[in-house]
Amino acid sequence: MVVLGHCLGANITLRFGADAPAVVEGLVLIEPMFREALTGALRWAARLRTPVAGLAALVRGLNKLGLHRRHLDGLDLEQLDQEARAVMARSGAFPENRFGSPLEDLKSTPTAVYLTGVLAVTAPLPLSAIGTPTLALLSRGGRYGDPEITARQLAELPHCAIRMLEARHWIPTESPQQMRQAIEEWCERRPA
To answer: For the domain that residue 6 is a member of, what is the CATH number?
Structure first.
């Protein structure tokens, strides 16, 4: 099977590839988040990993006691993509304020889940355990990570093809056709 993931999902894909190499025939990493390449607020989160871990444990403990937010907004990802593409068609700019905001994310994500995600994004990744053919799709925009540092990290993988796409970070929304074409071409070149 070929396993694909975007952002935190790409990090999970790498971990799955390291943990279950016998069942993974290929990995597709869309904007993986390497700790060394993080920029902006995520770089600070990586530096503050220990306090974030403590806060996540505290929130999980409060949740076990029954203390948690009572209302979370629903999130329809298909609708969110359609809205983003409509904004892009009108203005030419990606609506980062809706996609890249912790406050927006926390409207629909439990706090403990969000903090656990921050910990997962800032954790080291098991690159030395990956021998599987890999396709990495990186954005030139580097909203959350430096694409050059990410490419250098990916160079550690023995069978990794890297494609740079015009996007800030949200390749599935910003460049869906180019993403699909790159994945299909890579899959067609792989041995049966």
So the answer is: 3.40.50.1820
6-35 pLDDT per residue, tens: 999 999 999 999 999 999 999 999 999 999
- Tens digit of pLDDT for each residue in 1-13? 999 999 999 999 9
Burial class (CB in 10 A: 0-12, 13-18, 19+), 86: exposed
Q: Is residue 68 part of a domain?
A: no
Q: What is the DSSP code string of 91-151?
A: HSS--HHHHS-HHHHHHHS-HHHHHHHHHHHTS---GGG--S-EEEEEESS-SSB-HHHHH
Structural domain that includes position 20: 1-38+125-192
Report which secondary-structure segment, H or E, holds 54.
helix 49-64
Q: Which candidate, 53, 12, 50, 62, places its Cα nearest to that of 33?
A: 12
Q: Is residue 164 part of a domain?
A: yes
Taking the model in full, what pTM does it have?
Answer: 0.91
Residue 59 in any domain: the answer is no
**Residue 65: alpha-carbon gap to chain centroid:** 31
Residues 6+ apart with CB under 8 A from 118: 42, 45, 52, 56
114 found inside a domain: no
Residue ranges of the chain with pLDDT lower than 50? none
Residue 26's beta-bridge partner residues?
2
Domain count within the chain:
1
